[in-house]
Fold:
Amino acid sequence: MDRHLQSNMSAPHEGYLHFPGAELYCRVLGKGQPIFVLHGGPDFDHNYLLPEMDRLADVFRLIHCDQRGRGKSTGNVVPEEISLQSEIADPDAVRAYFRLESLALLGSS
Structure:
């Protein structure tokens, strides 16, 4: 993945995180406490939350990721491999990638 996503700059940075069985598209914006923004679904991606959600980037570091098999995170994903376990594991893998002890989760549906 692009090292730009490690940045805490105020301009959005985009790229892919590579995990077993999936590549997750991520968009990171802002500074401050990290918030993992979880889009609704099953057929949505993070785009319907923009640009309104970006207003929080003045205070928080927003981490948008299209969920496994959705949006820009569809590459080589077999639908049968999307499970409750992968839906829980993916945000935790993103947390670990960014070396965060914890993060807030903001969900929308």
Observations:
- Strands lie at 13-19, 22-30, 33-38, 60-65, 104-107.
- The radius of gyration is 13 Å.
